[in-house]
Amino acid sequence: MIAATAAVQATSGRRFLAVLALAAAVAVPHTGGAQDASRQIMLGVAGTIRSEILNEDRELQITLPESYSRTTISYPVLYLLDGSSNLLHATATTRFLAAARNRIPEMIVVAIPNTNRNRDLTPGPGAVTFERFLGQELIPWVERTYRAAPERILWGHSLSGSFTVHALLNQPSLFDAYIAASAPVWRYDSLARDIRAGFAPAAKAGTTVDLSVGERESPQMRGGITTLVDALKAAAPGTAPNWSFDDLVGEDHSSTKQRSLYYALERRYAEWRPPYFETRAELDSIGGLKALEAHYERFSKRLGYTNPLPMDLVLQVGQIYLASERHADVVTLANAYAAPYPGAAENLVNQVGYDLLRRGQLERAVEVFKKNAAAFPASPNVHDSLGDAYCRAGNAALGQQSYQAAVRAAEARTPQPARLSWYRDKAAKGCAPSDTSRLRL
What we know:
With 441 residues, this protein is an alpha/beta fold. It is built from 16 helices and ten strands. It has helices at residues 87-99, 117-121, 125-145, 159-170, 191-205, 219-234, 257-268, 280-285, 288-303, 311-323, 327-336, 342-358, 362-375, 380-392, 396-411, 420-429; strands spanning 2-11, 14-27, 38-51, 56-63, 75-80, 108-111, 148-157, 177-181, 208-214, 242-248.
């Protein structure tokens, strides 16, 4: 099932249609006479851009990182050739690796469906034109439209894998990494010439190439990849791109897609995963917050753009501090990461306030909530929490004012939050009698 909306946006004389929401309908099993129901699981967006170079409209299918709406950071971009058949497995792979204890950073995935596959992806004049489309139209559009980091990865399989090799050898600075799975380069007519001309510029650009082939593929397929790998092996140091090769045991031509991407991404981001910690003792044993921050600063220097401590690790450190009653450290941590992760920062400070309420430190709790409301005035939750603190502290008038502020903030949001009616009920009722006790501020 596909839910669709469309709008027209003009940018630099080009016309872009946005956005089509991709959704999967999931049926709820029929049990005990219950009515069947379904809900949509949102995957991403689809739309078209006008290509003057190709003289046609080109569809794009894009999935954003799960955290995208809750951060202000930029994300690496994975560009998928043969996009329609590869969006699901690539999105699943990137999300799994990012969630599995930060094996890789979260990524924007841009899938490029075909219109004329042979024309665009066969090494030769058509591929040169398609590379112009990528470099002059598609990539600039993506980087204007989304928070895209200057870290681009191109992935292709079969014929699009051959195109990936062609782009590496002819436009090496277009992407930072090229992943070519099961590429039939034995049919790449100018491969030897392009290797001679393209290895040195690719090395100078600092790019990498990951090649793979299945154990059960045809002799021609395996022989062509072997020729390319042998040329990479024979190149003198510094005269060819950094490379890796996977001979995928048990795989055939149709099954190398996901493993090629999985292994290549793990290699590229081998240093991304931080040392393991779950407890305060384990955090201290790896050098604490400073060591974690230094870990990602080193990676930032390697890739050439800022990679702050990932949001889930900020929250994990905050929870350890909170469990140890290091309230001031939690607030300091939240302030340090309020710019890239405003929602996480707000949440951490809110937890400090409620922890202080539980411990009966009402004046301190009110002050913490007041600062959070001042830092995030558009958040209904911070005003609601401040209202809870005022009520607990015995100031019903200020409590109700904060509840009313929560309603105004919720009403100002688009779309309005599901808890709007709940905020309105609290504003109407004010402080419950049990909430107004002991201290009046």
